[in-house]
Design goal:
It is built from nine helices and six strands, in the order βαααααβαβαβαββα. It has a six-stranded parallel β-sheet with strand order 3-2-1-4-5-6, with helices on one face. Helix 6 links the parallel strand 2 and strand 3. About 40% of the residues are buried.
């Protein structure tokens, strides 16, 4: 593949830029434990990469909770922000990749299924928001991943066609969304997604600064 056909890069956030999957696990576990239920690997995989409504409607359907999905979301976000105080790290290679893109003046945006309340808090703690051209969250879309909507909107914001955009993801839903949009989907492997089914990915890499990722740009 000839270099320089890609003109912008879209980043997922949780589990891709930041090691926050453990924080989400703690919040979901606390939410369910309070109600006498257990958060499992299977449930985690079912909601990974999906927007709040899909996640908490699944919780309601699975456990027959009386609360609205919005009430569950609010409580879960409160717990998440509490656990965030325990600290979290950036994923390996993030700073290298950001500097690499900035040195080549490649536009970059964030496309996350998380709610804006969570996104702004996570980015603020790592002082990274201003390094991105735009941030799309769950509030900016009507259909969450695996729908391609968020990545189609990203391409529009970049002013390019989806095929000119690299999408960096870590979830099955995100991988499918990138493929459905017609973007070049790259999965970054980590401990939390090593058993995922990423058949729709154009490339599966070991880190954000994997040489195979850098050579695409």
């Amino acid at each position: 593949m000839h270099n320089n056909i890609f003109r912008a890069v879209a980043f997922d956030m949780d589990g891709l830029m930041f090691d926050t999957e453990d924080t989400y696990w703690k919040a979901a576990s606390a939410l369910l434990t309070k109600r006498g239920e257990v958060y499992t690997d299977e449930l985690c995989r079912a909601v990974m990469g999906r927007p709040p409504q899909a996640c908490f409607e699944l919780f309601k359907a699975t456990f027959n909770f009386p609360e609205t999905w919005q009430e569950l979301q609010r409580e879960s976000e409160d717990l998440f922000l509490q656990f965030l105080d325990d600290g979290f790290s950036t994923m390996p290679g993030l700073e290298t990749l950001l500097q690499y893109l900035e040195g080549r003046h490649i536009p970059k945006g964030i496309c996350t299924s998380s709610a804006v309340r969570v996104v702004s808090e996570v980015l603020k703690r790592k002082n990274l928001a201003e390094r991105f051209d735009f941030i799309l969250t769950a509030e900016d879309i009507t259909q969450g991943k695996p729908s391609p909507e968020i990545y189609l909107k990203a391409a529009e914001r970049f002013g390019i066609t989806p095929s000119e955009m690299i999408v960096l993801e870590d979830s099955e839903a995100g991988c499918e969304a990138a493929a459905a949009a017609g973007a070049f989907g790259v999965i970054i492997l980590a401990q939390h997604n090593v058993h995922g089914n990423f058949a729709a990915a154009k490339l599966i890499a070991d880190s954000l600064d994997d040489e195979r990722v850098l050579t695409l740009i």
